[in-house]
Design goal:
This protein is mainly alpha-helical. Helix content is 49%, strand content 5%. It folds into three domains: 70 residues, no CATH class; 36 residues, no CATH class; 38 residues, no CATH class.
Length: 148
Amino acid sequence: MSCGEYERRSAEASIELLEEAYEKYLHVKPIREVITDHGSEFYANKRDKNGKANHSFELYCKEKGIKHLLCQYNHPQSNGKIEKWFHTYEQHRYRYDTLEEFLEYYNTIKPHMSLDWDKLQTPEQAFWKKCRSAILGSYFEMIEKEVD
């Protein structure tokens, strides 16, 4: 949905990318949840006695109404899709002049075995197929408001 290349990981970069995806697809449906590991860019590992912390990424998610799900410690399978993405990125990134070109390949050209392999489905096709009902629902809500 959104991607960037940075010198180092940071909460600011994570927020920037999540905000980009949030705004880009808000007209379809707001992002409902995000799953991350316990990295310091996503999660405050030091918390007060009530389990609270003042972390910018966590606060951003709360402000936008995005449920922040955390993977289990030492369990990379919990976040397997993004782990696979990074594997593919490392294998193929050198072939493309820009990150945008790589993303075009990954999202619109390369079929994914985890999707409908018989139809050689790409992530973009799967995304829009899943969003059809949300788009139609939003359209009908808009029409109903205009009629009222």
